[in-house]
Amino acid sequence: MEFEEISDSKLLRPGEMILHSPTHTVVVYAALVDETVRAFMNGALMEDELANLKKIVMTKKQYRERPRASRCKGCGSNKK
What we know:
Helix content: under 10%
CATH architecture: Roll
Strand order of the largest sheet: 1-6-2-3-4-5
Oligomer: single chain
Number of strands: 6
Structural class: mainly beta
Distance between the termini: 42 Å
Low-confidence stretches: none
């Protein structure tokens, strides 16, 4: 996983996870108002400059290797 500077604000989409550099916290991007970014951090709305945020970049191999959630076994997967 790598972190890169955000050069173009059009690359960000609402709901995307980005890194807040000063606190080293992953936040959920909400909106861009002027040069201020609004994002959710720990359930609260925060505002900060675009320069303090970095985009999280994962390779396809890293994305495939992430742990997957298993299916519910309660109802049975071989139901007829």
